[in-house]
Please model this.
Amino acid sequence: MIKPLATNQLYTACDIDQFDFDTTEQLDDLQTVIGQDRAIKALHLGVNIQHEGYNLFVLGPTGLGKHAVVREYLESQSRSRETPPDWVYVNNFDKPSEPIAISLASEHATIFRDDMHQLVEDLCSAIPNAFETDEYHLRLQEIDDELKKTIESAFSTLNDEAQVNNMRLLRTPHGFAFAPVKNNEVIKPKEFDALPEKERRQIEETINGLEEKLATILRMQPQWQREARNKIKELNREVVMFASGHLIDELKNKYQHHAVIRVYLEAVQQDVINNLQNFRREEDASEHMQVPLMKMPAFRRYEVNIIVDHTQHDGGVPVVFLDLPNYANLIGAVEHTVHMGALQTDFTLIKAGALHQANGGYLIIDAIKLLMQPYAWEGLKRALLSQQIKIQSLGQIYSIVNTAGLEPEPIPLRIKVVLIGDRMLYYLLHAYDAEFKQLFKVAADFDDRMQRTDESQRVYAKMIAGLLHRHKLRPFDRLAVARTIEYGARLAGDAEKLSINVMEIADLLCEADHYAGELNQSVVKREDVQRAIDAQIYRGGRIRTRLQEAINRGILMIDTGGAKVGQINGLAVMQLGDVSFAIPSRITATTRLGGGKVVDIERETKLGGAIHSKGVLILSSFLAERFAKDYQLSFSASLVFEQSYGRIEGDSASMAELCGLLSALSNLPIQQGIAMTGSVNQRGEAQVIGGVNEKIEGFFDICRFRGFTEQQGVLIPVSNMQHLMLRDDVIQACENGQFAIYAYSTVDEAMEVLTGETTARINARVEARLHELERIRQRMKKNGKETANDNEKNTD
Amino acid sequence: MKKTQISHILVAIDAGVASRNILQAGIVLANRFNARLNAVFIEDIDLFHVAELPFVREFIYGSPAGRLVNVAGMERSVQTQTARLRKLVESIAQQNKIEITFDVLRGNIASALCDASKQTDLLVIGKNTQLRTKNQKIGNITRFILSTASCNVVVLQYGNIIERPVVVSFTGSETSQNALSLAIELAYEDHNQLIVLLPAVDAREYQKLGEAINNSVQGHSLQVSLVKLSHNTAEQILQVIRQFNGRILLLEGSDALLTNVQKQALIAQADIPVIMLR
Model:
């Protein structure tokens, strides 16, 4: 029979002799990330490879410090790179609904904006002055006089001709008419009627002729006026060119190597000419109203809307973390103002998104937040696939709104997007979104544990020192550090591993510091760390306590003493939030004459998961393999988790179920002071299970409450020995012989411990019982009776 | 010096855009002289005569195709015009808080205006240069009124307003005394400028005229500039007006300084209001 494990096998303590420091004050902060070599290499590849689609998805559980690591890494990489250009939007004078995007060298956007402000200010002064000159007024007067002269000349020529022909041009209420004149008086109708027919006809013909000429003049008049207006326009253009030309030329020279700005400045010049009334009128208003010039409606058109400005940037490329990755924050938006109840917008209301801000650098986004924002994920993919940022409202994209909006010129996108999320999200996206694979080719997989060696423990100590420093906590002495490392191993659920869940470690450090503070200690000690661990367990132990209470009061029936046939204590782990614990669960097995089927009641009631059912089927196969190679199994059995009302999953109780079944078949009682865990394969070998520490401690707590009998303990698979990091009180009880941990390799070793019998005797009793059942079955068959369970074979 | 009395001003208005401008000038003058203001519109009798001729067509701006006219249509148009002018007068009176009476007469415009102005001290008319022959400097109606009206006449070009400095001609005649008196009244306000044009005369006469002017302006806070013309021509007067940036010209109606033709030429070319005194 196997022996209980020695106490040194139950806990792998951290050897403090390996530390060459008294407190963490003597340790340097860790400059590198520990345990994430794979992820860092992936980051390095993703950041440095300059091909399309090499964006990154950083995956791993919460608490590993992914954000901090990624940000620190990207910031370190960003400093050595050339700062990307600034971007501005300016008015498109030809198509105001399609603002023009201009890129400028880094930190030049504000300079360009200030230049434009200065230009408008100068124009507001220069243009009115130019129009106030005598020369301008003289030329304007000349044009006016010329028009007047042209019209007057046409009318006076016509009037002359009318006078020669004894006619007069009269002004009527709406225009003009000709009247025959005699003795300088308009002929009265009666006089006209008295004239000879010939003379009357001649007057009529003369008037008709004059009327045609009058019609020609009237037809020409709008054209003359138009010509005059054009001359005034040309004059104004000349004056504006004179007043503004040198100002705009100065800017053109300044931006001579920037073709887009030069073209824009030419458009500005043309627009100033076309809208010079703004400059002639608004200057005074601006002074009186104290409104900034560029805020006035007439001059907003010359504003420079800075979209990306690297003035405040320390150099290098930007590293942007987008906390709220909704569509507008990501892609940018065109805002609106309400004017007289109507929504209005223009290029000055274009707002940059995070893609703009991070363009040329790195954008970090929480994947889950991104996916939870409507259309944000689609927007990001569209931008990455097209490699440009095109600001469109959702209304435009989905044709919800048909009103005319702005369509700003797209801005080329060169960016590395780093999504941070958990593994499940990564694998779901990978499986179900074809574009995801195309766009996020690099996965930086953050590990949540690292190998536990002397070397790694020393590094871990430095990490602890770094966290203490970052959180401004008291220094830890060597013992406190060692206890924290042991806690890290327990978090990892493995004596040979260390958890690198920075958040959980940091939480422990903070809490231990708090308890040390309560005692006015300047250094945190092992006891403070232990107190913090105990407090964590206590805080999260409400449900566990209730369940243990139910067991102790006999509400949940668990025996911790005596022996019973077909009954065994399994161990189930419960995970509630960030707390996991185990409680024992009674498993019972019954057997009867039948066709060889093991009924898993959990499965039948649909409370058992697939893995659990698999475990039960495996144990059935084991029985057939071992005991019924040459004949048919003539029994039926039922297995059940007593008082279990929830779903059962996993195969960690399959060994216990098998032992319960063997007990029932052999009619050998099982010691109820022993609980067991482990899964079984078809050969009866024990396989590793999870949560071994919690399971042992769960049963230990029940036994301790009821009082140790020195016959109590837990059976665990041998392969779980490496995971043991048990509580001090468990180890102490084992040390005192009050409790025992057995590591078994096969069902036979387990059965020996559970029944106190040898394997040979157990197997013999099982075989005898199976043969007995087979004989009964044969006899009944001979008598023409079939057991109900025989039919099971046919129906299964 | 005898003060020129302006107690009744008549403003001639028509359907043209200048009417509002003429009314405003009339208001300024009425306020200045504390005079009663009356607006008059003459319905041109010749229009009704023409309307009876079956072949005469009316040509309107923007529509060069003429339309035949008739008496009823003309009557309607003229009445509409009259109503509109009445409204205009009322609204301007209300805006300026002044009483303006409005009369409508029918007849030959020039004659009717001359008749209507007999009981007034000052007739304000617009200068229509469009319907004139090549040989004429100003329109028929303006010319007729200037030569016939018995009262003082103000001729305004479209856009003119009554402002200062004032330019006045002074030959020593009684009319020019009146002109000077009126000019002083128009110019009077603290240290305002008055430009007095003196004809081309010898030194003795010049001195005499100067003394007369000094006597007239005595007691008024005016900056008086005496300008002696080298030639009594419209061109030289216009030159002086431009030189001193004169904004209104007062001219005696007699031939003492300029002939009628010269006066017409001056009025035609002057882009400021001209007051012709009788």
In short: Chain A has a mean pLDDT of 89.
